[in-house]
Specification:
Strands 7, 8, 9, 10, 12 and 13 form a six-stranded mixed β-sheet that branches. The chain is built from 20 helices and 13 strands. The protein folds into two domains: 190 residues, Periplasmic binding protein-like II (D-Maltodextrin-Binding Protein, domain 2, 3-Layer(aba) Sandwich); 195 residues, D-Maltodextrin-Binding Protein, domain 2. The chain starts with 11 loop residues before the first helix and ends with a helix. The chain is globular, with a radius of gyration of 22 Å. With 450 residues, the protein is α+β, with helices and mostly antiparallel strands. A hairpin with a 2-residue loop joins strand 4 and strand 5.
Length: 450
């Protein structure tokens, strides 16, 4: 079993996987033959019906909790686990962290062999795949125990936990893309550092002013992190989507997708960005005063707070006419257990119930709580940067909840790379990649019984 680890702050591996669909691909690559049996079949403890709401009064129970919080959010989650342990004398939870790539590679095999964790965290675009492969079990009893309803949560992450008519995940947070700006660099170009651009006109005017001052104002990354996430946001802003609502067809090669990728490539062609931006160089340039603007994830808030930089963060500018932003979501899951143990099943649900309610404390790790009550609390309003990005809550977009859909996103990122680095016409790059991605969708539909 992987040992608990502490790693320095990094999001490259997670977001490269998330944007490229690597998380879903990693799980699928473990092979269908190793999937555990149906959660309702022999060996799996039946849900008690109270979802842990009645507490746990059984014998001493040691639980394992796996996640990929190896960055700045890790100590916050560890503190919550420690608090839970202090408050529950007969339950001891051990938290194991690992890189997300390792987590998704190891989880299905561990569950199949009976060595999986009792509780886990899963990114929203991996829930359907793992539900279809019977790696995780339904949580309708937990939702009922907590008396949870869609009205308690932001709609997008709540709906994303549903697959095949059942709830498989309880949302903890959303982590959206945001607009970071270097106030000092803006001032160098004569821009008001307290009035960042908010739409296409003001954004292009700002980039032109920066260019006239000899500053490449927005570095266009050709990598999934952050270029892929940015262009995905732009596709939605221009009124399009990546897939049809049912996830059966690829739609990113339609006109909105072409407009989005063309706008991105034009940042380079019009001199607002250098060509061939290295991985993470766009964010490093913001921190080093080499550029003014960077579209990046909410997780960078705590990193920037540790610098002497004069910076701000806002919702993404509305370039395409419709407010929209890429987002991910961490969701609680209960992996399938190979042997039946009603005490373990109950204790796991008690832990999930308790930690799910700690949304406000989790927000301090640099996330937006999925719970409406936490976002509306005075304590959350005292976190101005998170509050600013939370203003996008109704404009966030996830992939459709379809098994294996993330596998096809590697083709989207190939189109981004071909157009941004290789000089391929955006329309052709998107059309070619959409054709390849459609085959992946069709193959996965057959594989997962869609």
């Amino acid at each position: 079993m992987p040992q608990p680890t502490r790693s320095p702050f990094t999001r490259r591996s997670f977001l490269s996987l998330a944007a490229a669909g690597g998380m879903s691909a990693t799980v699928a690559a473990c092979g269908g033959g190793s999937s555990p049996r149906d959660a309702g079949g022999s060996g799996q403890a039946a849900a008690t019906g109270d979802g842990g709401a009645g507490g746990y009064d059984g014998p001493q129970m040691d639980l394992t909790f796996w996640n990929g919080f190896t960055g700045g959010d890790g100590p916050t989650m560890k503190a919550l686990v420690d608090q839970f342990n202090a408050e529950h004398a007969n339950i001891a939870v051990t938290m194991t962290t690992m890189q997300w790539a390792d987590y998704y590679a190891k989880l299905p095999t561990a569950v199949s062999s009976g060595n999986g964790p009792d509780v886990g965290i899963m990114h929203v675009d991996s829930v359907a795949t793992n539900a279809a492969r019977n790696v995780i079990q339904p949580l309708d009893d937990v939702a009922s125990a907590l008396q949870l309803a869609e009205s308690d949560f932001a709609t997008v992450p709540w709906q994303a936990g549903l697959y095949d008519g059942k709830r498989y995940a309880i949302p903890l947070d959303v982590h959206p893309l945001g607009f970071y700006y270097n106030k000092t660099v803006m001032e160098e170009a004569g821009l008001d550092p307290e009035a960042p651009p908010t739409d296409a006109t003001s954004y292009m005017d700002a980039l032109e002013a920066l260019k006239n001052a000899g500053i490449e104002g927005h570095w266009a990354s050709p990598f999934p992190f952050t270029g892929g996430l940015s262009v995905q946001s732009l596709v939605y802003q221009f009124g399009g989507s990546l897939f049809t609502e049912d996830g059966a067809s690829v739609t990113w090669a339609e006109d909105p997708g072409v407009e989005a990728l063309t706008w991105w490539v034009d940042l380079i062609e019009q001199g607002y960005s250098p060509a061939k931006v290295d991985q993470d160089a766009d964010y490093i340039a913001l921190k080093n005063g080499k550029t003014a603007f960077n579209w990046n994830g909410i997780w960078q808030i705590n990193d920037l707070k540790q610098t002497d930089l004069e910076w701000g963060v806002a919702a993404l500018p509305t370039i395409g006419g419709t407010p929209a932003a890429w987002a991910g979501s961490h969701q609680f899951v209960l992996p399938v257990q190979k042997s039946s143990d009603s005490d373990r099943a109950q204790a796991s649900r008690v832990f999930l119930n308790w930690i799910s309610e700690q949304s406000q404390a989790w927000a301090e790790a640099g996330q937006v709580p999925a719970r409406n009550s936490a976002r509306e609390s005075a304590e959350f309003q005292d976190l101005p940067e998170q509050t600013e990005l939370a203003s996008q809550i109704d404009d966030l977009h996830f992939l459709p909840t379809v098994p294996g859909i993330g596998d096809s996103m590697s083709e989207f990122d190939k189109a981004l790379n071909a157009a941004t680095l290789g000089g391929t016409d955006p329309a052709k790059a998107l059309a070619d990649s959409a054709e390849r991605a459609q085959k992946i969708l069709d193959d996965n539909a057959a594989k997962y019984g869609g």
